[in-house]
Amino acid sequence: MSGQRAQVALFASLALLGGGFAVTAPAYGVLLEESRIGPGFLPLVAGLGLTLFSVLLLAEQLRAPRAAPPQPGTDDFGRSPQQRMRILWRVFVLLPVAVALVPLLGMVVAFGLLVLVISTWLEGRRPLPALVLSAGSAAVMHGVFAVVLQVPLPTGVFGF
Amino acid sequence: MFDNLLLGASTALSPVNLLWCFAGVLLGTVIGLLPGLGSSTGVAILIPLTLTVEPVTALIMLAGIYYGSQYGGTITSVLLSTPGEAASVVTTLDGYQMARQGRAGAALAIAAIGSFAAAIASLVLLAAVAPPLASVALNFGPPENLAVMVLALVTMVVLATGSKLRAAAMACAGVLLACVGIDAGTGQARYTFGSIELLSGIPYIEVVIGLFAVGEVLHQIRVGAATPIRARFRDLVIRRRDIRDSAGAITRGTAIGFGLGVLPGAGSTLASFMAYGLERRVSANAAQFGRGAIQGVAAPESANNAAANANFIPTLTLGIPGGATTAVLLGALTVYGIQPGPLLFDEQPELVWGLLVSFFIGNVILLVLNLPLAPVFAQLLRIPYGYLYPLILFTSFVGAYAIDNNLFSVWLVLIFGVIGFGMKRFELPMAPLVVGVVIGALFEKALVQSSALLDGNLWLLATKPIAVSILAAALMLIIGPALARRLRNRTTSPEETHV
């Protein structure tokens, strides 16, 4: 999606979001007895505010398209924007997968694996240093949070 | 006040607190250095580490992270032209140019010296101003609190750098997020969609971790990494002329920073921009700005440090955050079961004064650490980001879990991470959203109480002189600039206009 179209979609969505809050707010009661403020008052006002400002931004965008933010070029490691976007999309997929695996593998193992997968598969780091890094970080997290701070981190099939 | 300072010193100088202060400053500097982490993120993701210590110790450490990361952010501004913090953006203009001319050390040194001078001056002012303001605020009722919160929201929007409309939209979005959960007045559940987890609202520490840490990491993956300029020990030598040239800039920067930082809702970013703008205007060598002028580093660095300290005035005395980081610190206070506000000075003098005195100690540690060790810290910038960002993600998710021992928090962090990435991508400011989330609940409470107190007629706010004065100040902030422009245009004669 082009920068202009994406911005238009963004502000339209924000306007809809604000409108959604504003429309549903009266169901909670905007004003109570003796004109006192009810639970729907603030969502109504803030929702209308979000709608108003988003519509103004939308109009601004349609009237005089704001220059799209500068697109990043090739970075110092020679990666093109397309290559970086590919990594980013994979991170987007990997993150919810890691969180979903927490009940099964345990938090430390699931995120330790995430570090390993990102370092080796996405970032092309050598396997041994990446393995040391992920195992080390998992051990540190376990030590700090589970042992020292006594946080009951979710454990999985491996027992930690 | 002397007794209070003694009490604070006895707290802050205890070996445990000194150690945590040192740890905070050191961690803060490292956090500020790392791409994708700033003071808000640093404070948010490290809150879980402080859950087992005394609140005052925890706050001393978190405050250390706050000002430590500001200096860390300066190092990346100078060596990478990549600001670690929004408040360091303007430092890149001249700092990076100085680094390219082989004067990275001088830029870092003047930033450290300027920040230290600003911190000490603003702390003296903070210690002098905060207690009387807290005494005044003790007389505040719901209408006055409501007015202060309106002022905070208006300030946050009007003084935002960049588009005011975007800031206003994000402030509204933040307030809307705060509406999710059980309404404090009636006990009615709102916008929870049947979720038990959402009954207690959207916790803002998770929001902050998601927006600032995960969102920033995703953004960094998109924009790509840069290689830093090497800073050497011998470059650290700062000439006497540099200090002489920067003295005025440091003084003016401190004054601007403190003045803006006191306003509830005004962050340090604007202070740094204004200090830079003023310096360029008053400087005899304005043409040098943007090409490596040392004043262009000294002024914004002094301003953002002074503002950071002054931000604690509304935070501690009114319970209203001065900016995004103090909003997170406010969240930390509530995690420790402490109610911020004017009563804090009376009820917890050890905590307040211990914290204030720890600022002095922390800034001394920061200067001692940073003047000789800046090139050592700079080496951290050479760690490949491909190793770094998975670790930041790991820490963020585990930290978020540790706050509530709840996997729901981890999902929230993920969702707000994606939102944060989108906000970065489309240049939507994050600070108004975070402050909106923090203020939202307090704002509603003050609104409901005021309406009950005034028998449902909010127009009766006009009978409350303090509330009216504060609301008038908010109104002036909105219409003041346009009014001043119009007056300026009117005083300009037609001849002048047509020349």
> Major sheet of chain B, described briefly?
2 strands, antiparallel
Biggest interface, which chains?
A-B, 78 and 63 residues
The counted number of beta strands of chain B is 2
First-to-last CA distance of chain B = 58 Å
Strand content of chain B: under 5%
Number of helical regions of chain B: 21
- Give the overall pLDDT of chain A as a whole number: 91
Radius of gyration of CA atoms of chain B, rounded to a whole number: 22 Å
Write down the oligomeric state: heterodimer
Helix content of chain A: 55-70%
Key traits:
heterodimer; A: 160 residues; mainly alpha; 2 domains; 0% strand; B: 499 residues; two-stranded antiparallel sheet; 21 helices; 73% helix
Explain what you see.
The complex is a heterodimer of chains A (160) and B (499). Helix content of chain A is 68%, strand content 0%. Chain A is mostly helical and 160 residues long. The longest helix of chain A has 25 residues, at 81-105. A two-stranded antiparallel ribbon of chain B has the order 1-2. In chain B, strand 1 and strand 2 form a beta hairpin. The longest helix of chain B has 34 residues, at 104-137. The interface between A and B is large, with 78 and 63 residues. Chain A: Residues 14-154 form the DUF1468 domain. Chain A: Keywords: Membrane, Transmembrane, Transmembrane helix. Chain A: It comes from Saccharopolyspora antimicrobica. Chain A: The chain crosses the membrane at residues 38-59, 87-118, 130-153.
